Amino acid sequence: MRGMDDASGLGRTEQAVLALERRGFAGPGAKERAIREELGLAPVRYYQLLNALLDDRRALAHDPVTVNRLRRVRDRRRSER
């Protein structure tokens, strides 16, 4: 996750995780396949990174729409437990 590419201070991998979350995926397994093929990450690691990004102010500055949407989803799921 090193190598900062923009003013937000996020690394390339962090930016790629957020970019992948902006996309829509058709069919079961399509997102997991993209995670492995495009990012070279295991899905478990991807979701660990994503969850950490949701609490990172740099991620919010970089992509507020995506981060806020995912925070709402996460909060809703937590309240349903």
What's the SSE blueprint?
Blueprint: H1 12-22, H2 30-39, H3 43-54, H4 57-62, H5 64-80
Helix pairs in contact: 1-2
Describe the fold and architecture.
It is built from 5 helices and no strands. By secondary structure, the chain is an all-alpha fold. The longest helix has 17 residues, at 64-80. It is globular.
Subunit organisation of the chains: single chain
Distance between the termini: 32 Å
Overall geometric form: globular
Q: What is the average per-residue confidence, as pLDDT, rounded to a whole number?
A: 90
The largest sheet is: none
Number of domains: 1
Strand residue percentage: under 5%
**Number of strand elements:** 0
Write out key terms for the chains shown.
0% strand; globular; 5 helices; mainly alpha; 81 residues
Summarize this, please?
Helix content is 69%, strand content 0%.
